[in-house]
Automatic annotation (TrEMBL):
Membrane-crossing segments per the record: 21-42
Residues annotated as domain Cytochrome c oxidase subunit IV bacterial aa3 type: 4-43
The organism of origin for this protein: Gemmobacter aquaticus
Protein name: Cytochrome c oxidase subunit IV bacterial aa3 type domain-containing protein
Gene3D superfamilies: Bacterial aa3 type cytochrome c oxidase subunit IV
Record's keyword terms, sorted: Membrane, Transmembrane, Transmembrane helix
InterPro entries: Cyt-C_aa3_sf (IPR036596), Cyt_c_oxidase_su4_bac-aa3 (IPR012422)
Any one Pfam family match given in the protein's UniProt record, by short name: COX4_pro_2
Length: 44
């Protein structure tokens, strides 16, 4: 088995997945806040 060289692994797929996760998290947070504001306005 070859020796592992730190920093030699290709992580492009990992970075794309993480960027997608962050984008999805921002969308979910925004939609959740929007729903809460809508509920507060309708109930007022």
């Amino acid at each position: 088995m070859a020796e592992h060289v730190h920093g030699s692994m290709d992580i492009r797929e990992h970075e794309k997945t993480f960027a997608g996760f962050i984008k999805l998290s921002i969308w979910v947070a925004g939609v959740s806040i929007g729903i809460l504001v809508f509920m507060a306005l309708v109930n007022a």
